[in-house]
Amino acid sequence: MFAIGGAQAVFTNRKGGVSLPPYDTLNLGFHVGDDDAAVARNRRIVARAIERDVVWMNQVHSARVEVVRPGHTHVTPTCDALVCDAEEFRRLGLNVPALAVMVADCVPVLIASASGRYVAAIHAGRAGIVRRVIAETARVLKRAGAGGDTLHAAIGPSICAHCYEVGEDMRAHVTQSLPEAWATTRLGTPALDLRGAAQAQLREEGIAVSFISKRCTYESGELYSHRRYHPTGRFAGLIMS
Ligand SMILES: [Zn+2]
Predict the structure, then answer these.
(1) Does domain 2-240 have CATH number 3.60.140.10?
(2) Which InterPro entries does the protein's record reference (predicted)?
């Protein structure tokens, strides 16, 4: 666990859970073919470790952002970003939940304001980045009142630019609107730099990038990679006030 702005962030890996191969062991995704009971148990293991209720998303590669409000923390909204104003919970004497994003190559982005009052978790995959999910989240955060507070971001482990090979057409399509995503693999074939594109979008929104993981999901055996091991599980980034 580490500090981002005035909040705490953590990225899980494959260790510490109960799922069997090929999902071994801390798979947090229900939608990938794993045993539901094992996933539910893994999610409880994570919640217990961080001593918080966790709000998860039903992620659909959109730019849809949901604000998590008191009384709705048991719901799993269909969206790709969650935003929370911790003050809404504290005012009612309630525990502030952690917000979670699940990934296995996509870019997990966690945001917290300097005061820790506002936090967000974003699923920034190729489609989400093209649809500007980061800009949309920044807009919702500011509308919730975070505008006066400096925002900090942590970019978690994702597939690196050298490993994310795509067709020439796909690279041309994505880099038309996101020139920062242009990349090549080690062999010189077309690739996309999702991490670089996420970083560029955060800076565009005036969000300070305080942490960038250098770990590549495709290259690390400790993380799930959709590209490398299909089917596979999902690890998570969690942010909490
Ligand atoms: Zn890589």
Answers:
(1) yes
(2) Cu_polyphenol_OxRdtase, Cu_polyphenol_OxRdtase_sf, Cytotoxic_necrot_fac-like_cat
Query: For 184-241, what is each residue's pLDDT tens digit?
Result: 999 999 999 999 999 999 999 999 999 999 999 999 999 999 999 989 999 999 999 9
Separation of alpha carbons 146 and 191, rounded Å: 35
d(CA 159, CA 78): 24
Question: What is the CA(37)–ligand 1 centre distance, in A?
Answer: 32
Domain ranges across the chain: 2-240
For residue 146, give the DSSP letter.
G
* Amino acid in the structure at residue 226: H
User: Which helix (DSSP H) or strand (DSSP E) does residue 128 occupy?
Assistant: helix 126-130
Between the CA of 125 and the centroid of ligand 1 the distance, in Å, is: 15
How many whole angstroms from 105 Cα to the centroid of ligand 1?
10
Residues 6+ apart with CB under 8 A from 22: 229, 231, 232, 233
* Residues at Cβ < 5 Å from ligand 1 ion: 160, 163, 216, 218-219
Contact 129, 164 (CB under 8 A): no
Query: DSSP assignment of 178-214, as one string?
Result: -GGGEEE-TTS-EEE-HHHHHHHHHHHTT-EEEEE--
**164 CA from centroid of ligand 1 (Å):** 7
Q: What is the distance between the alpha carbons of residues 20 and 22, in angstroms, rounded to a whole number?
A: 6
